[in-house]
Amino acid sequence: MKNTILFLSLFLSVLMHAQVNASLSDPNLKQILLGNYQAASYQASQPIDATDQISCELINLINPDSLQYSIEVLSSFHTRHTFSDTVSANFGIGASRRWVKSKLESYSLRNEQRLQVGYLNFDITNNTCGTLYNTKNVLGVLPGSDPSLKDIILLTAHLDSRCEQRCDTNCLAAGADDNGSGTALVIELARVMSAYTFKRTIVFMLTTGEEQGLIGARAFSDYCLAEGIAIKGVLNNDIVGGTICGETASPPGCSSEGDIDSTTLRIYSNPLSERNPHQGYARAVKLNFEEKVQANMKVSMNIDLINQEDRSGRGGDHIAFRENDYLNLRFTSAHEHGNGNPLGTPNYRDHQHTSQDILGEDFNNDGIIDSFYVDMNYLARNAIINASAAAILAAGPAVPNFILHKEATGLRVEITDPILAPEYRVGVKGYNGSTYDSIYRFSGSSFVVPSQIAGQLYLVGVAALDSNGLMGPFSQDERGNAQANTPAGTVDNMPYSFDCDLVSLHEISPVVPLGIQLLDPQPNPFESSTNLNVWVKNDRWIGKAELKVYNSQGQLINAFPIELLEGLNTLNYEHRKDNGLFYYSIERAGLRTPSKRMLIGV
Question: pTM of this prediction?
């Protein structure tokens, strides 16, 4: 009964709003989204476009400190309520979205102005909180290298925050996890991914109005539908940084209050639409991560596919895209700190939708947060999952068309696309469960599903593989009762995993670690300058030496003469080249230290 009431509350809130007059602040943005542009106008001078290299480098580039900085700034605006102040320089939704826009613009400047930044403007009318004209989503659009591939990739999160009362615009609503965590994740991905080249256009979008009925997401979804803008997939991030289970977490919820899970990320996708195309998309995201990226992670992550569109009685921006038949997913932490206090939950002590949704607390009163409610390392890992999913989706093939024939010899897959992919994967499952029981691989246009038992019902989906082994989304499931037993087949053990050792910086011999130690740069990451701390332990390193800086591909980009003394040496380094991940080492008299990492650009 409680879930029914929550669902009705959400449903009524969606009905009692309307958004109209959606338009982009820059007409050029519309043309890019439609694929009407010259690729050369946005080409990098030294493009990096190999998906394996991009995915491997992003594992190192995505930075917990950078994510924390964004959440701290977002929390400082007091509230990001959709109907809050738009004029103040440091309070309300206006100040927060201008800050987000300024960050996206700074990333564009660092990357040859390739990231195109602007607003989606729209009006809100007939909402329970009133009428609001010319409110905005913030967009950063990274044009793809192949304008003929007109289906964009959308990475999104909602910027707005709220307290218990839906229309309270003055309460402290830091919204650190809901949804500062998702907003920081999208900002961070814009920062690191803007340096790379992707075949398809990638859009980084922060919406407003989610807490009043998914208004900003629906404005963009409806705009895309009306203008004929194709979307290959939506990756929506909402509440993706918290690891602590609250007392009232919405079902499927978490085990018990206070439990912590920092290694599981949930993906929600609609199971009820026509033959589950969204769940096929979710399965591809999970498989691509597990097969191509997981082995390179310092901490393993589990992706839990949930057989629901969202938590019971709850909703998120991805729903607005499902309503217009765009493939979509919602990423959410395994543990939420509350159920959002719907209808005034008695004795509600959790943080979600309260003034307690903060980054953390300083329990020893030394001015530094010592207990975090948002886990930055966990959030960074979730960002890596998003980044790899977007990179593979941007390069990989489209969803294949196929027919599932119910024949006397068993169920048979027939690919009906006029141009065949090099290979296909076939996922097979029973009626229950969100993941495939078995996956097979084949080439050509016809494949008899192995291991069938006569009379049993199967759900079958198909995904295409390109020549590099990149897999696109699985199709919708087709159902069929097997009419015959079929021989067992070889379950596909995908051989196309990314080997990040082949695309990272290799040490150049000789490396002599004895007698000198490179300490961590302070600060790191940094905008333009940092202090490189070097501890010299014996006299063979005393005297004239050379500081060398390499990019993430191992190319030497800077070399400086230095003078080393015994003990601690502090070298001020100013960086005037591109931002990203770099390495430095010191050489003297034929000896070289191991390299040390530094991250430029916050």
Answer: 0.83
